[in-house]
Design a protein that fits this description.
The structure holds two protein chains of two kinds. Chain A has helices at 5-22, 26-51, 59-76, 81-103, 108-128, 130-133, 154-176, 179-189, 191-196, 201-227, 237-250, 255-271, 279-293, 298-306; strands at 139-140, 144-146, 149-151, 229-230. Chain A is 74% helix and 3% strand. Chain A has 14 helices and four strands. Chain B is globular. Classes of the chains: A mainly alpha, B alpha/beta.
Amino acid sequence: MLINRNASLLLLAAIIALLPLALTNNFYLDVAILAGFNAVVCVGLNLLIGYAGQISLGHAGFFGIGAYASGVLVSTYKWPPVLALLTGAAVVGVLAFLLAKPILRLKGHYLAMATLGIGIIVSIILRTETGITGGPDGMMVDPFTLFGFELYGEKVWYWVVGAMLILAVWLSLNLIDSPVGRALRAVHGSEVAAEVVGVDTTSYKVMVFVLSAVFASVAGSLFAHYTGLITPAKADFFKSIELVTMVVFGGMASTFGAVVGAVILTLLPQVLTVFQDYQEMVLGAIMMLTMVFMPRGLLPTLEGLLTPRRRA
Amino acid sequence: MTGTLEASMNATTAAAIPVPAARAAAAPARHLLQVDNLSREFGGVLAIGDLSFTIQHGKIHSIIGPNGAGKTTLFNLITGVYKPSGGTILFDGATVSGLAPYKLAERGMSRTFQNLQIFFNMTALENVMVGRHLHLDRRLLPALLRFPSVRRKDAEARERAAELMREVGLGKYLDAHASSMPYGALKRLEIARALAAEPKLLLLDEPAAGLNATESREIDELIKHVAARGVTVILVEHDMKMVMGISDHILALNYGRKLAEGTPAEVGANPDVIAAYLGSMP
């Protein structure tokens, strides 16, 4: 890593703290908040894709379950939002655990197809269970309240999402530099070699799948409260692809790469408004160009250019 | 340095995996490894057939045989990478056939690979640290929250890994990324990683393959050094000079069956072995 973990974490905190000076209106703040939500999901997804070397094309499904758990439990059943968020996370955790065992035995294309299926099923259920979810039109979600305080407005949510992102990055950096994190990376490097030094590769794959799904679910819950309106589009296949593209573009196996990828690809459609009509196409092009010209992703490639690789 | 390593080795071996009560009462296993009537077929082709042999504690054992004799298949069966079609394997007095590799690692078995299996997505030091996996805190929550205990144990593991790297002659690669290291160094890195697990039994699959004569001799010394630390070594190797020089015991295979067994002198003089390697006289 170019700079050590604590310094980079401080840098991230400083950027988040100073950014509002430049974000002079609520539209800019809104874009930053959306980028923050995406970044949190990508940091979790990067643990799965970048570090453990597994693929998921269904993570928007977990994001959607979190969002709708909060939406339905808080708005329809008047649960306290924190409890709804935790329940959503628990449901997603259990679901991911149950799914992980059979599907993580699959590799490559098969794993991709199975996770793709999960995402599609979730989005179909959200679309068709009109009585509960409001169907394709979506549903309104009550604001997030905690100890009688209501989180309202971009200025407040900016700090909430900023804090959540710092927390997510901190957790990810901690994990990667621990026995568990090394075991995950070992699964990516060589499964058989990991096994013969005692790494139970299957349970680590399940663990990281569950963990990254829970990251997505928590982000989804808060996102539902922030926007106040959720639709099944937030859980569909295209959203899953977008998340994977962010991770791959920013840099696989780089926590900050995932953040950078999420921020750039959230900003891009906002900056280039013409781009909005061709979003799928441009996203596909970015994915292809990344794969061909910088397969390690943006941040690791830049790091590589700045620090010539040490040869012993 | 070696003194402290041995001391801690003994400490961990003593506190090793709990032995089932019934076995604890019995005398310690006579053989570290006992293979009985082991066989494995791949789509009707017998790769290992009805093979029985034993491995004693604390020696260097070699498995030899012409290409395709089933040496690597045997390694994969012993270490749980393949499941046997028949027969049993006893390791340290307990039946282990059919167990997953990571379970065998917990019982004190480790290995290297003929075609390198390096974690190329990590530094050399981290590769060896993965070898310490079983001796570290493997719970998710302490790792996520970076408990002081995790940090302390990690620093120790880093220290141990660095020591091991120096011990196998990789001192100058302490800061290197695995993907930037030459082939010969990676061979040693696999040995360091396997040793980091503190195994009772270490299986080395062609540790000298692809090395020049000087490097080969150095690996020779390294294997003797490992065995002197009290680790039992099983070696698959084509370099006959090496095998004859360092083995206490040799098992010769051909077509998945036992051809001969004994000291290097006995096996080297065995007409069946000579015939298998050179072809029989008309």
